[in-house]
Amino acid sequence: MATHAKQPSLFDPSILRPALRDSLRKLDPRHVVKNPVMFVVEVGSVLTTLLWLRDRIFHPAARAPGWFTLSVSLWLWFTVVFANFAEAIAEGRGKAQADTLRRMRKETHARRLVNGREELVEASKLRKGDRVVVEAGQMIPGDGEIEEGVASVDESAITGESAPVIRESGGDRSAVTGGTKVLSDRIVVRITADPGESFLDRMIALVEGAARQKTPNEIALHILLVGLTIIFLFACVTLVPLAVYSGIDLSATAVVALLVCLIPTTIGGLLSAIGIAGMDRLLRKNVLAMSGRAVEAAGDVDTLLLDKTGTITLGNRMATEFLPAPDVRAEDLADAAQLASLADETPEGRSIVVLAKEKYGLRGRTVDHGEHVFIPFSAQTRMSGCDIGERAVRKGAVDAIVKHVQALGGRVPEELHQVSHRIGDTGGTPLAVCDGPRVLGVVHLKDVVKGGIQERFARFRAMGIRTVMITGDNPRTAAAIAREAGVDDFLAEATPETKMRLIKEEQAKGKLVAMTGDGTNDAPALAQADVGVAMNTGTQAAKEAGNMVDLDSNPTKLLEVVEVGKQLLMTRGTLTTFSIANDVAKYFAILPALFVVVYPEMAPLNVMHLASPFSAILSAVIFNAIIIILLIPLSLRGVRYRPLGAAAVLRRSLLVYGVGGVIAPFAGIKLIDLGLAAVGLV
Ligand SMILES: Nc1ncnc2c1ncn2[C@@H]1O[C@H](COP(=O)(O)OP(=O)(O)OP(=O)(O)O)[C@@H](O)[C@H]1O
Ligand SMILES: [K+]
Ligand SMILES: [Mg+2]
């Protein structure tokens, strides 16, 4: 997908041209009215245009020369167009991607199963609940869950990643996406989305911005901007009697121009572009955010919950050793462990079967489904196993097996705890094995902490974010891995319920919580978290519960999500500071120029020595419009983010953008004034 394409330059012609067209179309008052500050400017543009026409037609004893009224009017129109352009160009980048995605949504046929027979139908006719067969070389016709089979799938259409991925029925990797291609084997898929509601459809709507709504923060900022606009409206209106009293001929055009210079047009014009660009930046990191609100929440996250296995560690836990109980032969332990794992398709289960084969030559077992009853692993029981005849073999977390054995009236040897503690302290996972009430020993599962993870957690700490590892594993293993990885805290022996409880507790303390997950049993927690990032490989339930989907299914992607969120908040904050500082400075730049004619005492304030009052006002209006264009790249790219504490970042940006915002207008207006004088306009 286009998300992996090199970041296009900000002003790529293919985006620039439609954006220019859009910025004129967006002059429609019904669009502009959604942005109150810009609406005031548009009303001002219409008003000054009418004033100019009136002067041309009726030649009254005009207070302002025609060239002045016309120039101000034109630059006010430019101001609105520039703001529209900022928004259009931010949207344009998503629109280009949506087009790429649409082209990909080719019409395909589906092999629908009806009463055990296949029939060929158009993919667009598939409904929820339909079952379809897909074989090697064919396109998956719709979103769904695999009911039967395993297949390798090329998902590059969605993720941009060309390496095939394995999708299989049963586990947490059973979801498939319409538009991806089966490379090997045969699967039966149960369709989970009606036409028009597929992942690809939603993705198109999202990147196009069609689904975008103002976030609560944006609404709050809008209200602030409207407040400022009203205050300045009063300030400008009261200036009129003051001017009359002082004998200054203040034209209506001048009052409108002054008003536009004072209201926060810079941030008002860039606000929506900043929001759109934030979601776009996330998309470039292959994360689909379902709402702008989620991106903002990511920028304010206090606590981050992460899984141990597969997130902090590599996740393919391998059996490395059988450690039998005192009166048990190692071979018998290996035999029982293998029996308990024959149907266990988890990496743990498979590795146990292999180790027993390698070490003790245990192979050639046939599985008889009449005789063997397999008990699959679940996060609640934390055990799995097999019943065959008299035997009931179980393997699982040590505390779970201990409870199980005690419930059956068995005795737990002291050595079991010693051995498990030893394994746990090295960061390994001890799996206890029992046959009925008899404890047979422990299997040592080894897992490896991912490379570079310490640096990632150090960055989180620098941002002031607390990281908590949650795991179903025992406290000793958890503590060892937590120490090695450098997380701040951990929760061991967790079940899906305790995960959920932890999130609620944090939220009750007023914290914003983020988490990643992929399983159906992560879904409630993903929905509860303020930022829930679901893995694209995860189940349908997980993807629907979260408010973001990571197409790369990389659990440590949260770090980048948080950074993009912070960058969005900072960009908006700094540009607001800059905009308001700018407006205040303009007030002091223009007023002395207007009044110095009648109040020579104001001369020391008139530091700018502008050519004339008309020139002062026109220069300010031009500066006011141009600054929007100049700040578009910064709004789209975002201010550079450094992982410092929130207070330090704020102090720094207030200083840079506040002081910069005060100085810029003086320099800018003076330059424009000199330019106007040079071309002989004033
Ligand atoms: N296939 C399995 N059969 C039996 N027991 C298992 C199996 N897989 C894991 N266990 C045991 O159950 C415990 C809990 O597993 P669970 O998947 O809930 O957590 P985890 O994988 O250890 O950590 P995380 O929550 O980070 O994924 C494991 O620590 C292990 O002791
Ligand atoms: K302004
Ligand atoms: Mg697990």
Structure write-up:
The chain has 682 residues and is of the alpha+beta class. The protein is 52% helix and 16% strand. It contains 23 helices and 22 strands. The strands form 4 sheets. It has a 7-stranded mixed sheet, with helices on both faces. Helix 4 (66-104) packs parallel to helix 22, helix 15 packs parallel to helix 17 and helix 22 (613-637) crosses helix 23 (646-678). Adenosine-5'-triphosphate binds at residues 307-309, 344, 346, 348-349, 377, 379, 382-384, 395-397, 429, 431, 471-473. It holds the Pfam family Hydrolase. Residues 107-208 form the P-type ATPase A domain. ATP binds at residues 344, 348, 377-384, 395. The active site is at 307 (4-aspartylphosphate intermediate). It comes from Anaeromyxobacter oryzae.
What small molecules accompany the polymer chains?
A: adenosine-5'-triphosphate, potassium ion, magnesium ion
* Percent in helix: 40-55%
The rough form would be described as elongated
Number of helices: 23
Radius of gyration: 33 Å
Distance between the first and last residues' Cα? 54 Å
Spatially, the strands of the biggest sheet line up as 10-22-21-20-11-18-19
Subunit structure: The system is composed of three essential subunits: KdpA, KdpB and KdpC.
Enzyme class: translocase
Subcellular location: Cell membrane; Membrane
EC number: 7.2.2.6
